Fold this protein.
Amino acid sequence: MRILLVEDNQELADWLGRTLRRQNYTVDWVGNGADADFLLHSERFDLVILDLTLPKMDGQEVLRRLRARHNSTPVLVLTANNTTQSRVSELDHGADDYVAKPFEVEELEARIRVLLRRSSQLAQPLVECGDLVYDSNSHEFTLRGQPLPLTPRERAVLELLALKLGTTVSKSALAQSLYSLDETLSVDAIEIYVHRLRKKLEGSDAAIVTLRGLGYVLRRVHRG
C-alpha cells in the first residue's frame, strides 16, 4: 500500500517514513504543499498523511484541491492544534481522520489501518479467501493455518489483491502500490510476482485469476 507523507519537518518525516516502511508500506515524502498537490494530480496513493502547516501551500489548501477534484483518497491530518474547533474544521473540509502532535506511533499506525480498511470497504481486520487468510493489522498471510512465507514485493501484491478481494486490479495499479518515486515503475515485473504467488498458492482454494487486458483478481476456486 502506497502512502504520501506530506511533512516539512524532515527529522519527523525521516523517522515516520522508516517506521511505516518497516510495516511494509511504500512511502513517498514531500516537504511542501505545492509538491504534494502536484503529486496528487499525477500519482495514485492509497493514503495521504498531511501536515497542515506547510511552505508554498498549506495543508488545508492541498486538501481542498484534492476533494475539489473528487479524489476520495483517505487523508489523515497531522495537527498541532488539537482544539475541538480545529478537529471539526478539518473533518468538515474533507479529512478522514486526524492525529494531534505529539503522537504515539502505535495510535498513528492503528488509524492508518482503519482508514485503509474503510477505503477497501472491509468490516473487520481479517480477509478470508478460502484457506488463505490476510490479517490487515499484522500485514501477514496464513495458508491452511500456517504462515505463508512471502518476500516484501510478493506480500505487497497479494495484500492489494486481498484488500480488493473479488475485484479486478490492473497491473498499473499494482505497480503504483509497489514502487515509490525513487524507484523505476515496472509493470512487467508484476507478472513475475504473480507467477511466484501462484506457485505458493498451489493446491489451495485461493487463486489469482488473470482477466486478459484488465488485470488480476483474487478469488476462491473449487479444486476438482
